[in-house]
Amino acid sequence: MSRNPQLGRNGELVHLLTLEGLPAEVIAHILDTAEPFVSIAEREVKKVPLLRGKAVFNLFFESSTRTRTTFEIAAKRLSADVINLNIGASSTSKGETLLDTVDNLCAMNADMFVVRHSQSGAPHLIASHLTTMGRSYVHVVNAGDGRHAHPTQGLLDLYTIRHYKKDFRALTVAIVGDVLHSRVARSLIHGLTTMQTAQVRVIAPRTLVPARIEALGVKVYNDMREGLRDCDVVVMLRLQSERMKGALLPSPGEYFKHYGLTDEKLALARPDAIVMHPGPMNRGVEIETAVADGARSVILPQVTFGIAVRMAVLSIVAAN
Amino acid sequence: MSRNPQLGRNGELVHLLTLEGLPAEVIAHILDTAEPFVSIAEREVKKVPLLRGKAVFNLFFESSTRTRTTFEIAAKRLSADVINLNIGASSTSKGETLLDTVDNLCAMNADMFVVRHSQSGAPHLIASHLTTMGRSYVHVVNAGDGRHAHPTQGLLDLYTIRHYKKDFRALTVAIVGDVLHSRVARSLIHGLTTMQTAQVRVIAPRTLVPARIEALGVKVYNDMREGLRDCDVVVMLRLQSERMKGALLPSPGEYFKHYGLTDEKLALARPDAIVMHPGPMNRGVEIETAVADGARSVILPQVTFGIAVRMAVLSIVAAN
Amino acid sequence: MSRNPQLGRNGELVHLLTLEGLPAEVIAHILDTAEPFVSIAEREVKKVPLLRGKAVFNLFFESSTRTRTTFEIAAKRLSADVINLNIGASSTSKGETLLDTVDNLCAMNADMFVVRHSQSGAPHLIASHLTTMGRSYVHVVNAGDGRHAHPTQGLLDLYTIRHYKKDFRALTVAIVGDVLHSRVARSLIHGLTTMQTAQVRVIAPRTLVPARIEALGVKVYNDMREGLRDCDVVVMLRLQSERMKGALLPSPGEYFKHYGLTDEKLALARPDAIVMHPGPMNRGVEIETAVADGARSVILPQVTFGIAVRMAVLSIVAAN
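Above: the input entities. Below: the structure tokens describing the complete assembly.
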């Protein structure tokens, strides 16, 4: 299929599968839509009736309390009915295929699927299947698939950067850490280049840099001090504990020495640089506590914006 | 107790425990009540306020994401508050008895229990206990007990048959597979005979036919081709994977050869025959994919009707 | 911090962490507030909009279906959005600290945390942290921490006693069983002494009596018959099954003989004495069935009052 499967005939967003290839105006529209939702969250009654009576299914084939919770909150603030399905323990263990599960939930009149899956491409597969079955009025939102994409995380990162720094075209953004295994990094890189960010840098040890990543429009640094110089935004990635034990890295302590963010290293970035992290943090591994809790950290605002961005995505696709 | 424990003084449905002995007019009333709920599910706002402020407890002593989800959706569309209790992991493991758990939940002002239990008779036991305790205003819906009954599945099967075939009295219905271990089969047989279905057939290997099943008013066939001849409705049963390994059967491949539904075997039924399955399907074991996804399959509409039938049951017992 | 951390500047309740040091008028206000909520639970529509649009997080670091369910029902009857987080299986297993988890949930605009934790003091730690972070508008309710406190259980016990016996100052109350390991006992003792109960007795084998418990204002009895004499209220404690196997006790049968409540022992109390138990009961270990289900048992009303008391606590702290 040559057409972008997440866009409808008139270029409107019907699924959110990846930020790769998503037009800048669609991204900007999502960020604009999220803005009023930030203030709703500060009101006494944090609810709007945009999705009232709609059934949103959280289909988590890979467990993630944090991401599942943010989608659950976003959907409930939109007044949807939310059904959490932890599929690891369910029908697929009875030998039912992924698409049989989806067909069954569609037959229950699902309106939307929020899908987390350990296999890259699972949300795409579901979206194509829905089209094939003539059920294109059911929407799919990718909540993280394998190493491929985590588009709502990418969007909340973009929202945060735009909130603090306004114009992407003037910015240097560094993404630091295990880019190789990170769907967060991949989605953010696509988003940043689409929004015409002046320079996107990747800082990582050689073993954690994907082959041919420069083709995505990023500059690679193996030396963190060099890479941080004059950055406006520093995005730290979580180091999965399984990597710490693997052959790709020496030890958490060694990693921290070379790629952990400290106040001293951060001094190389611009004085008004912001520090981001998708969470959960490994304090003392990829980031020191003084930085994580410091004045330039916008890690908690990221979480707040994340709810608003997810409300925006759910309400936009539901309307299309 | 000689009186049917699921009916009140005036014959109204207060619990749904089994289809055995349930009068035809009660069944017909449930099916009639379900009809408008099918269209509610297709509306933008899929909610009616019939159970607003009521507390429905999903008491699943045996895990079943699929059935639990259908009841959760049904109750939420009726605007009830739904509390899911996975009791395997809960108080009973602390040594609390089933009836102590029920008493405690009643004391929390439960309005309704949807009960799934691996032991036949558990929902009956709860219903009798509620009567003994003077809490007959609390309702019990059996969501599957042991090998005994799965009445809402039986009702959604009846709804599906009536939807496509109108008059039970003119129909030949074949139920194919592991009838011995199937509460689905048992409930459907009772429902079909009560609704005066012209002929109900059971097709299974000798080892999977319960003793004295003819007493229920069915005709037994060990040869699938013979049994399918001129059927209007073919209901395939799921072959539990534990049976495949057991002494009762040779192998999944051998089972498929003799009792798997193929287009070729289905050709023996009437040209307008419909194919049903309670799900989840074992494709290639009891049914081939061409049939499961074919033009005569009504397997997904069964799921849709299942929500409406459960909404009907919940709203009827709540009103009585 | 010298000030009571659960009270605001004007002495109003902002968190509920423990009954220790909580002024009698605050306790009385909670009990008074709970009264109308008891009747709400008996209405057709069991909901009031006091917490509409508020996000209540059930943070259960230690699993407890029963307590979690009572808080979930209480919050839903107040129309809150409830998010259940079973944290054992979640972020903390990813190495995130307790306070990072709390910060993240605050960033999602949580309004209230209901916290169950195996470590004594965890809810206090969260409450102090919220104050430090300038988030004192987020409220913490302790749902049981280690052996320290279970204040909502203590309050529902007080509610039950006041309901049946009116004036604490005229009463003799006996708490029987494993006081050493019981946060329920500790909270109830603080509540009873604050409400100026005439006499609070603790009845237990020597091995299950905490050192220096007399300092709390209770009288210790090792002989149950002696301790029960002329009591108005008998509160039985659950004997954890791990204790039954431990070195502290001989056997369940021996325990029952000496400290199990029977009709015969209960005859030593006042004729109108009431019998309480926090549940779940071990029938035949700490209490015999005839007493548990007998005319003087108020064990099920305790559960009913527990919902109302939790509704009172949630609505009071939310308003402050």
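Note for the figure: The first strand of chain B starts at residue 55 and ends at 60.
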